[in-house]
Automatic annotation (TrEMBL):
UniProt source species: Ligilactobacillus faecis
Cross-referenced SUPFAM superfamilies: cAMP-binding domain-like, Winged helix' DNA-binding domain
Protein name per the record: Crp/Fnr family transcriptional regulator
Top-level taxonomy: Bacteria, Bacillati, Bacillota, Bacilli, Lactobacillales
Gene3D superfamilies: Jelly Rolls, Winged helix-like DNA-binding domain superfamily/Winged helix DNA-binding domain
Amino acid sequence: MYNYNYEQKQIVLTNILGSFLQLDETEQKLLAETCHVQLFTYNEIIELSARPSDSLYFMVSGLVACRTFAREAEEVDYLQFYKQGQCFLSLDSFSSQEKLNLELVAFDGEVTLVKIPSKIVMLLRERSRSFEMFLFLELKAQLERMLIFELYCYQLFAKNRVIASLCYLALFYGQDQHNGWICLPHKLTRGILASFARTSRSSVTEVLTQLVAENLALTGRYKMLLDKNFVLEQFEGFYFRDF
């Protein structure tokens, strides 16, 4: 982890947070004096549920994953992802039962985020209408999207669950290649996809093999692409497309 100095923080807050939150000069100064801008590399731990920070995180760049695991069996379950422009709460916001063995980790080569202490979050919510609205709408959208995904995806059989998970991750965390394909996050392995879809690696391999044969997917070393029209058709008329 690398902590930005004051001058580096000012640049990030002005160029990134300013465009999202529309804070005035006094509020930006308050953030510069109290928040931390941090750089993490892939798989580096940002926070553990055993030692939550009681903060709000704002994603400047990269991807972050929230995952849980059983230390004895070394089993990992990926629960959620966060990308540039999103914010998320500290693991301290989970109940004691829910946050057991949870961790936030960098899911990209480089992840830059702003860590805002909870007392500053409360102060900004009182002083800035734009900050209050951004926080409310962002967290509301994340919660609704997560609940809809759980209701939709986890009711399906294994094969369709893999397809739904692939398309969900492509829609919200993939990169449009502007040639009819969407590239999924580079660190997304078949094992991680199986974890996220709550199924087996063999089911993931079977589905990907079928999609490749139908020219709906391309797979190779360090990449996984889906046909953009196929992704959109999976959620045709579905609430996901409103996000």
